[in-house]
Design a protein that fits this description.
By secondary structure, this protein is α/β, with parallel strands linked by helices. The protein has three domains: 178 residues, 3-Layer(aba) Sandwich (Alpha-D-Glucose-1,6-Bisphosphate, Chain A, domain 3); 223 residues, Alpha-D-Glucose-1,6-Bisphosphate, Chain A, domain 3; 134 residues, Alpha-D-phosphohexomutase, C-terminal domain (TATA-Binding Protein). The chain has 17 helices and 27 strands. The structure holds 6-O-phosphono-alpha-D-glucopyranose and zinc ion (ZN). Zinc ion (ZN) binds next to loops.
Length: 543
C-alpha cells in the first residue's frame, strides 16, 4: 500500500457553519472536494500523526464512501487508530460518547443532521474535539484557513476496509477498529436512568411510538426501548436507516414528523410519542393530544431532574440558547441555580459543561442534552421523559398543566422564512440593526417596544466573544421576539423569527400558541418589514 500525495488547490466556500461543513452531496462529490476538506481538518487540528480518532455517520447517501476516504486519508497522515461504527454508522451523541469514553483525540462525524439526504440532497462533515464536543470557532477558523491555502493532500492507495463486522484490522500502519454503534451508548444510558422504573412503566401497559424517521436512531431505539426496556415490539417505527431517509426530511418537528403528530392528536394515540433526527441528536416529545415545545421540554426536565438517578443530587446550572424560550429561566430561578444564555449552536455549551457550570442544556431547535456527552442527545431526552413519567405516574398533558400552573407558560413559536434571497435577508437584518437604538418607546401594532438589542456573548470560561448572534425585541407586556439568520441552511437565506409571551394568569394557560402570539408577530413584522422584505405572506415552517 502506497501513500499518494495528490496536488490540489483551494476550493471556495469550505467554511464550516453552525455545525460543520454542509453542502449538497454533488458538491462534496466534486473532484478533491471532500479530500481537501479532510486534509484541512488534519492541518487545522495540528496534524493527526500518532492520534486516535472516532469515525461514523448518520447513514445518509455517500456516508460509507466518504468514510472510506477519511480512513485512507487518516492512514496516509499517520493516525494510529480509527474507531469506526459498524457500516460507518454512529449517531452524533454515540460518537461523542465514544470520543470521551475511549479518550481519543477527537472524531469525524459524517452528517448533515436533519437535512434531507440523497444524491441531490445534503451531506456534511464535522470535527469533534477530545472532549466529545463540536470544534469551537478557533479551530473551525484554522480549518477554514487551511482550505484556503491547501496545495496537496495525502491518501493511501488501498481497497475499501470491510466495515460490516466488528473487529480490528489494519490499513497501512493504522489500526481500524470496527465497533457495534449501539453497545457503548446503551451502557451509558443505563448508567444515567432508572431503567427498572421505565421497565415497570411498560409492563403496566404504557404505550409509546418512537419515530426514527428512517435515520440513525432506529437501531439504538429498537435495542434500548424494545429490547432492554420491554416496550411492545413495533413501538419503534421507521427504524431502518435509509440513505435518503425514506425520501423524507429527518427533522423531528410537527411539520416533518406529521404522521406521528396526526397519530398523537387522534383517537388511537399511544401514551407517549417521540422522534429523533437524521443523526440522532434532536428530539421531539409529544403526549396524547399534547405537543411539548423543545423550550418547555427543557424546563420540565430541569424541574424534574432529581427523579433521574444521575441528576438526583441536583443540577449545577442550566443553559439555553438565546432564542430558546425563557421557561427554563423560571425553573432555574426557583431552584436557585444559574441559567446561562448562549448563542445558537451546541458548541457554545461545551465550556459550561466542561467547567461544571451547567448540567442541562437545551435549544429551541429540538436539542436537549446534559454533561453526559458534549452533543445534544435525542434518545437521552426520550429516556429522561420516560423516567420522569414513570416516577410521576402522570400523563404528559397533566404534567404540562401542572408545570404551567407552577411556573407560568411561555407561549412560544418559531416562524421560518426559507430560501429567501440572501441579499434581501441581509438588508432586513442590517436595517433593523441600524434602528435598534430608536426603537424603545415606539408603538408597533398593539405593542410598545421596551428594549431592543443585538445579542453578543462573552464566554464566562474562556473569555471569547461572539457578536451579532440575533436581534432581540422586548415589549412592554413581557413579550419577546428574536430575529436571526440560520447558520445551517444550504439554499439562500433562512430568516427565523422566534416569538414568545409569558402568561401567568391561571385562566389563560391553555390557548392556541399561534393565537396567543399573533400580536407579537404583527408588531415584529411592522418593525422589521418581514413580509415586504422576504416577499412572503406567511412562513414556510412554523414550529
Ligand atoms: C444545528 C446545531 C444546533 C442549532 C441548530 C439551528 O442543529 O447543532 O445547535 O441550534 O443547528 O441552527 P440554525 O442556525 O439553522 O438556526
Ligand atoms: Zn442532528
Amino acid at each position: 500500500m502506497q501513500i499518494e500525495t495528490i496536488a490540489t488547490q483551494p476550493i471556495e466556500g469550505q467554511k464550516p457553519g453552525t455545525s460543520g461543513l454542509r453542502k449538497k452531496t454533488p458538491v462534496f462529490q466534486q473532484h478533491h472536494y471532500l479530500e481537501n476538506f479532510i486534509q484541512s481538518i488534519w492541518t487545522g487540528i495540528g496534524g493527526i500523526a500518532g492520534k486516535t480518532l472516532v469515525l461514523g455517520g448518520d447513514g445518509r447517501y455517500f456516508n460509507e464512501r466518504a468514510a472510506q476516504v477519511v480512513l485512507r486519508m487518516a492512514a496516509a497522515s499517520g493516525a494510529a487508530r480509527v474507531i469506526v461504527g459498524q457500516d460507518a454508522l454512529l449517531s452524533t451523541p454515540a460518537a461523542s460518547n465514544l470520543i470521551r469514553k475511549r479518550g481519543t483525540d477527537g472524531g469525524v462525524i459524517l452528517s448533515a443532521s436533519h437535512n434531507p439526504g440523497g444524491p441531490e440532497e445534503d451531506f456534511g462533515v464535522k470535527f469533534n474535539m477530545p472532549n466529545g464536543g463540536p470544534a469551537p470557532e478557533g479551530v473551525t477558523n484554522k480549518i477554514f484557513e487551511a482550505t484556503q491555502s491547501i496545495t496537496e493532500y495525502k491518501i493511501l492507495e488501498a481497497h475499501d476496509v470491510d466495515l460490516s463486522t466488528p473487529g480490528e484490522t489494519t490499513l497501512g500502519d493504522m489500526v481500524v477498529e470496527v465497533v457495534d454503534p449501539v453497545t457503548d451508548y446503551a451502557e451509558l444510558m443505563e448508567s444515567i436512568f432508572d431503567f427498572d422504573a421505565i421497565r415497570a412503566l411498560f409492563k403496566g401497559g404504557f404505550t409509546i411510538r418512537f419515530d426514527a424517521m428512517h435515520a440513525v436512531t432506529g437501531p439504538y431505539a429498537k435495542a434500548i426501548l424494545e429490547g432492554t426496556l420491554g416496550a411492545p415490539a413495533g413501538s419503534v417505527v421507521n427504524a431502518k436507516p435509509s440513505p435518503d431517509f425514506g425520501g423524507g426530511h429527518p427533522d423531528p418537528n410537527p411539520i416533518w414528523a406529521k404522521p406521528l403528530m396526526d397519530l398523537m392528536m387522534g383517537p388511537d394515540a399511544p401514551d407517549f410519542g417521540a422522534a429523533s433526527d437524521g443523526d440522532g441528536d434532536r428530539n421531539m416529545i409529544v403526549g396524547k393530544g399534547c405537543y411539548v415545545t423543545p423550550s418547555d421540554s427543557l424546563a420540565v426536565l430541569a424541574a424534574n431532574a432529581t427523579l433521574v438517578p444521575a441528576y438526583a443530587g441536583g443540577l449545577k446550572g442550566v443553559a439555553r440558547s438565546m432564542p430558546t424560550s425563557e421557561a427554563v429561566d423560571r425553573v432555574a430561578q426557583s431552584l436557585g441555580i444559574d441559567c446561562f444564555e448562549t448563542p445558537t449552536g451546541w458548541k457554545f455549551f461545551g465550556n459550561l459543561l466542561d467547567d461544571g457550570r451547567a448540567t442541562l442544556c437545551g435549544e429551541e431547535s429540538a436539542g436537549t442534552g446534559s454533561d453526559h456527552v458534549r452533543e445534544k442527545d435525542g434518545l437521552w431526552a426520550v429516556l429522561f421523559w420516560l423516567n420522569v413519567l414513570a416516577k410521576r405516574d402522570q400523563p404528559v398533558a397533566e404534567l404540562m398543566a401542572d408545570h404551567w400552573k407552577t411556573y407560568g407558560r411561555n407561549y412560544y413559536s418559531r416562524h421560518d422564512f426559507e430560501g429567501v434571497d440572501a441579499e434581501a435577508a441581509n438588508t432586513l437584518m442590517d436595517e433593523l440593526r441600524g434602528k435598534l437604538a430608536d426603537l424603545p418607546g415606539t408603538k408597533a401594532g398593539d405593542l410598545t417596544v421596551k428594549a431592543a438589542d443585538e445579542f453578543a456573548y462573552d464566554d464566562p470560561v474562556d473569555g471569547s466573544r461572539a457578536e451579532q448572534q440575533g436581534i432581540r425585541l422586548y415589549f412592554e407586556g413581557g413579550e419577546r421576539a428574536v430575529l436571526r439568520l440560520s447558520g445551517t441552511g444550504t439554499v439562500g437565506a433562512t430568516l427565523r423569527v422566534y416569538l414568545e409571551n409569558l402568561v401567568t394568569a391561571p385562566g389563560d394557560l391553555h390557548e392556541d400558541p399561534q393565537k396567543a402570539l399573533a400580536p407579537v408577530f404583527a408588531a415584529t413584522d411592522e418593525i422589521a418589514g418581514i413580509k415586504t422584505r422576504t416577499g412572503r405572506d406567511a412562513p414556510d415552517v412554523i414550529t
